[in-house]
Amino acid sequence: MATDQAQDDASDGDTYDRFEDRVTRISNVGNAAGILRWDQEVVMPDEGTPARAQQLSTLSSISHELLTADETGELLAALEGDDLADEEEAVVREVRRTYDRETSVPQSLVEEISATASNAHPKWKQARENDDFGHFAPTLEKLVDLKREYANHIDPDDDPYAVLFADYEPYIDLETAERVLERLREELVPLIDAVQDSDAELATDAFAGQFDDDDQEALARDVLDSLGYDWERGRLDTAPHPFSSGTQFDARVTTRFDESDLLGSITSTIHEFGHANYTLGLPDDGYATPLGEARDLSVHESQSRLWENHVGRSRPFWEHFLPIARERFPELEDVTPTEAYEAANQVYDDNLIRVEADELTYHLHIVIRFEIERDLVNGNLEVSEVPDVWNDKYEEYLGVRPETDAEGCLQDIHWSHGDFGYFSTYSLGSVLAAQLYAAAEADRGPFDDAIREGEFDELNAWLRENVHQHGKRYVTPDLIERATGEDLTADHFVEYVSGKYGDLYDLEGYGRR
Amino acid sequence: MATDQAQDDASDGDTYDRFEDRVTRISNVGNAAGILRWDQEVVMPDEGTPARAQQLSTLSSISHELLTADETGELLAALEGDDLADEEEAVVREVRRTYDRETSVPQSLVEEISATASNAHPKWKQARENDDFGHFAPTLEKLVDLKREYANHIDPDDDPYAVLFADYEPYIDLETAERVLERLREELVPLIDAVQDSDAELATDAFAGQFDDDDQEALARDVLDSLGYDWERGRLDTAPHPFSSGTQFDARVTTRFDESDLLGSITSTIHEFGHANYTLGLPDDGYATPLGEARDLSVHESQSRLWENHVGRSRPFWEHFLPIARERFPELEDVTPTEAYEAANQVYDDNLIRVEADELTYHLHIVIRFEIERDLVNGNLEVSEVPDVWNDKYEEYLGVRPETDAEGCLQDIHWSHGDFGYFSTYSLGSVLAAQLYAAAEADRGPFDDAIREGEFDELNAWLRENVHQHGKRYVTPDLIERATGEDLTADHFVEYVSGKYGDLYDLEGYGRR
């Protein structure tokens, strides 16, 4: 009955309006939940959790019901037969995709995964504390089984890991991701070997010392000022795990301060600026529709890493920023821009922990996780084999072997959430950052002089024009191709790190010189 | 069809569960909206408004749809024929009431009122700025008409003002409110006359001077510490118009600081503490149902005013608190508790502005608004007559005549929101505060010594036991009767102010001595 109604209305202009109204309601519920999560991480009193959990669960179930309601399917079906404008078609495409995925998985399975993941978290935490993988293993096995079942509901004909990967990165196919990661492994293993063999001595202690938290916060504001963050649409706070969230009207940044790690708070703030700056570049008039929402995880991460690494870890940035930092911290008076640059780019020898990794070795941490979780989900690896395989790969790729599982396969939270397929988007983000930065420089000329002057407008204008303003209008491969003239490729990243680290560590066969 | 289904299920225990699930969802959406409003007032960046407005509007319409859905009516009908526990009956009673009201008003009228009020606000603001009542008058007339129509939908047989009043105070009938306000007018007009004729000179300049904002904030935290505010479930921030909001798990306070008004920030903080403290006393296990939600505006205001006036403006409080205040502000060293007490209780001569009024004259401001809006809504007064009637009443009740409408009938925001019937809850709150405080002292003995020692636990325990823990379990008259053994009465308030101000101003025929 309702179906006929929707199809009868298909020729009316108002079918799209009714569809868009539903879409914006769903987005607004999601954005409200985003504020509640920000609040929970940043300002909520400790004992607020039970109420907050209920509020978020209610919003999540309302959003799910609005999306998976029969009426959504009817409106989609009616519109897909219609002659729509390009932008409308993009909105329909995006909603169709999530509609199909959410309606294909039984709610009981979604709830079982959610409940299992809730219970998995304390088990993982305890296992890590006690270095006891066996304590976590049965839960991990259950999660892998459930997520495989989940993938099977969505697409029984596809490789289950590919289906899970598409939850995080819907439009980059798994083969592309595999090819990129394979390339990173091939290029980075020998490059890191060369770095580790190098006799070059970098000024790694340029930021040694203790730095007052309040002054670090003032400096984090200086960083954001300097990069052009729009305070009328944002704010800076602290959170235990820094993140950015919000919409084009209100995109907030969080960071954290460690008195012995000034450099960490600066680079983390720049990273989160990159995320927020993408959000702020989404078009106002697309608010609460896919046209005003960010493309997926890899593109988001490309923005944070472009700013963190290509800008924030560049030599001209430190020529610009060191005088500003010295005003907050006079003890940096004798540090030179070159020393700051070297300190910001040192490659560590004992690479066991992903979140402490440098820009170069980071990706081998990702490759290892990617290979293991892919094999786990696809049934080519048993959970019980994970610790040994993990340690073997660390030895092979990074030349270090974890002595405990706590600093081995238990170090990351992701699997305890049932997040299989997430990790690779970090590396894809770095690869895309390099590709976009190269394209921007090819268009507008090198940015080094501008960065040295603290001028970021032209770089940002290029990103606005080629990435941000499009929201989800184009699928990711099209967005990348339009912005850079190429498909996703690791070439630019490889060239970037070979040049940068070749110079820094004076490596034969590498370097820009 | 669905109706039969619900009624068939009435004998199942799960009808109530399904009903409660719906009720908690509605509450959780409302509580989420509460967080979004707190965020908007306290931390949201300036340009976040367009997105926030959409988010709040979406949550409000979802909440309305959940409440007014056929299924809600079916569940209510099924449960009302059922044999329910007392607490369940109370939940059904509360939901029935809002269901009946919200379903009786056409959504188009609700939207028209909302749109008219949105447009009214800038008109009122401009009218006040230009002292031009005529600029606001047509909009005010439209709002009065629309709200009369609204009332007529809810109950065509009742006096429309009584219907509107019940939006804010559902269980105290309008006759009771009128009787209380009439009594206040009769008692306070001569008392204020006597105060104004008094030769007593109070130490009104005890808190004269400039007080640093940061130190005021530290002192506001001292106030909250001293009163026993639970920081694990709350926080203090600043907002342009101080308010409290939240749930029993997370009840937050805001205040504001004016360097020339230290006393104002202290009393405002205590006032908001009273609201939050009520919320924190609601039972955890009633969260997201009427059993864990506060009774209505008058009861809420009774809590803020009990703490602000009966505690915070008492002499023993200043004996306790002045030494604490001196630690933040050594310049208060020579101020005595009596001087502080007098400064906190001075009665002003030129009483034109409600929000600047003292504890005594305040209620005549309310009586005037109550009389005028009642006559407006019931058709006994034309909008064009409001300014003259307003000014005449000020002259008659308070002995002052506004020279402009800006400081006369244009001073309050409420009518521009279409809020007719709200004002009286402020005075009912004060009256109830006095009644509750007297009952608490009758039960537990005078609290003066405890307050002097900074001990508030026993007073708070009495409030928890007799007011807070009940949530909405009892209708307001029953709650009052159970707590105090009497119906709502102004007797205790009259006795309290007669005694206090009689002593302070040395008035013949008044005073406790």
From TrEMBL, chains A, B:
Cofactors demanded by this protein: Zn(2+)
Keywords on record: Carboxypeptidase, Hydrolase, Metal-binding, Metalloprotease, Protease, Zinc
Reaction(s) this enzyme catalyzes, per UniProt: Release of a C-terminal amino acid with broad specificity, except for -Pro
Record-level GO BP terms: proteolysis
Binding-site residues, Zn(2+): 271, 275, 301
InterPro entries, A to Z: Peptidase_M32_Taq
Active-site residues from the entry: 272 (proton donor/acceptor)
Pfam families in UniProt: Peptidase_M32 (PF02074)
Record-stated family: Belongs to the peptidase M32 family.
Protein name, as recorded: Metal-dependent carboxypeptidase
Protein's organism: Natrinema halophilum
